[in-house]
Design brief:
By secondary structure, this protein is mainly α. Helix content is 92%, strand content 0%. The chain is built from 2 helices and no strands. The protein is rod-shaped, with a radius of gyration of 36 Å.
């Protein structure tokens, strides 16, 4: 048994080194997978934000063309109506 025990200390560091290297490779692989996933999701979010900005700009352009005189015009009569109603009460 002494011969077997003398080999264990020699194998133990080698086994431990192989185990640690394997563990580090697995961790690196998992981190790379997670990193790739995060980058993909960030790219998708960026594309969605760009699409949302374009939609907002399209809506602004439509409202600007269709409603350019109306935001100021109806607001003034409503304010004047409120003043008249307050004065009558």
């Amino acid at each position: 048994m002494d011969g077997h025990d003398s080999q264990d200390p020699k194998q133990s560091p080698a086994d431990m080194t192989a185990f640690v290297q394997n563990l580090l490779q697995q961790m690196q692989s998992r981190f790379q997978t997670m990193s790739d996933s995060i980058v993909t999701k960030i790219d998708d979010m960026g594309n969605r934000i760009n699409e949302l900005e374009q939609s907002i700009n399209d809506l602004r352009a439509e409202m600007g063309v269709e409603c350019s005189p109306s935001p100021e015009a109806p607001a003034k009569p409503k304010e004047e109506e409120l003043i008249k109603e307050e004065g009558s009460a």
